[in-house]
Amino acid sequence: MLFNLRNLLTAATLRKSSKQLVQHFRSGQPTQTSVNLKGRDLLTLQNYTAEEIKYLLWTASDLKQRIKYKGEYLPLLQGKSLAMIFEKRSTRTRLSTETGFALLGGHPCFLTTQDIHLGINESLTDTARVLSSMTNAVLARVYKQSDLDLLAKEASIPIVNGLSDSYHPIQILADYLTLQEHYGCLKGLTISWIGDGNNVLNSIMMSAAKFGMHLHVATPKGFGPDPNIIKVAEEYSKEYGTKLFFTTDPLEAASGANVLVTDTWISMGQEEEKAERMKAFQGYQITMQTGKAAASDWTFLHCLPRKPQEVDDEVFYSPRSLVFQEAENRKWTIMAVMVSLLTDYSPQLQKPTF
């Protein structure tokens, strides 16, 4: 039985049982794919086609069912090691990657700027070549996207963007898996982004249209996304026949939306801008009043950590909030990324409907 929960809003429906999720995962098309991502980098979802992103979500669903719900042990990464470079602190990215890679039999190595000479006493080029000789992949959580691009250029192993100032692709994969589990299908959904024009929004803009999802964006004046990224998103919207618009009015962006999304207003490295940003984002807090403008089946996402000024407790802890399911799915999607980039694994379950 294929789930479509657009009109079911109780806590019970939002916290599906294991039995229900297993049944959901069994729906869809027969298991077959021509997608092969082995050896690829994941720097931005702009570089991935619709079918390639769907393959990653399919693999994540497959691993989640087989490991979490069926209790299988899948040492798919046995004998492989992962270098985890973190310039920025993290809860979900670090924990999901370390536990996920280890659960698949691999060995994750956590490295901060206190542990390695990243671009200071040793060039990025030299670091990339050394890591290539000792590990099988690198996940890097950095400030500058250009550092990731250089690592990818110089490394002979896959480089995965764990977050940069420009993109956060592994977060968006978790968001899409969560929405696919909840709604049963992504095509036709409308996402409303209410907040800062940051790296998370950029990654949504590089991928939502590929699933046939519409996107409404509300940002304060002067805090919108990069114009170059807007241009690419507009091209995707035209190519895939989706709606994309930008506004400074949160209620206009929320109008008719299935999914309300926000993020921190003050990212790491922007602490000195706090006073200015708090003033600019007045009126942008997501509340039940915001939800009244949305579709009847609206849900809420936030990549965490969350501040009350971004979304109030009534929404954040309500049955409409999918944030903790979203957080858990960071683990299954990063596991899918690592398996897809490092092995020839093919999902065993039927392909979900996207």
Please summarize the sheet with the most strands: 5 strands, parallel
Radius of gyration over alpha carbons? 20 Å
Q: In which range does the helix fraction lie?
A: 25-40%
> Number of folding domains?
2
Superfamily (CATH H level) name of the largest domain: Aspartate/ornithine carbamoyltransferase
Strand order of the largest sheet: 7-6-5-8-9
Architecture per CATH nomenclature, i.e. the level-2 architecture of the largest domain? 3-Layer(aba) Sandwich
The CATH topology of the largest domain, please? Rossmann fold
H and E string? HHHEHEHEHEHEHEHEHEHHEHH
Number of strands: 9
Low-pLDDT regions: 1-30
Keywords: Amino-acid biosynthesis, Arginine biosynthesis, Mitochondrion, Transferase, Transit peptide, Urea cycle
Family: Belongs to the aspartate/ornithine carbamoyltransferase superfamily. OTCase family.
Main location: mitochondrion
Subunit structure: Homotrimer.
Keyword list:
alpha/beta, 40% helix, 14 helices, 354 residues, Rossmann fold, four-stranded parallel sheet, five-stranded parallel sheet, 2 domains
Can you characterise this structure?
This protein is α/β, with parallel strands linked by helices and 354 residues long. It folds into two domains: 34-167 and 329-341, Aspartate/ornithine carbamoyltransferase (Rossmann fold); 171-326, Aspartate/ornithine carbamoyltransferase (Rossmann fold). It is 40% helix and 12% strand. The chain has a five-stranded parallel sheet with strand order 7-6-5-8-9. The chain has a four-stranded parallel sheet with strand order 2-1-3-4, sandwiched between helices. Helix 2 (18-25) packs antiparallel against helix 3 (50-69). It is globular, with a radius of gyration of 20 Å. Mean pLDDT is 91; it is low at 1-30. Belongs to the aspartate/ornithine carbamoyltransferase superfamily. OTCase family.
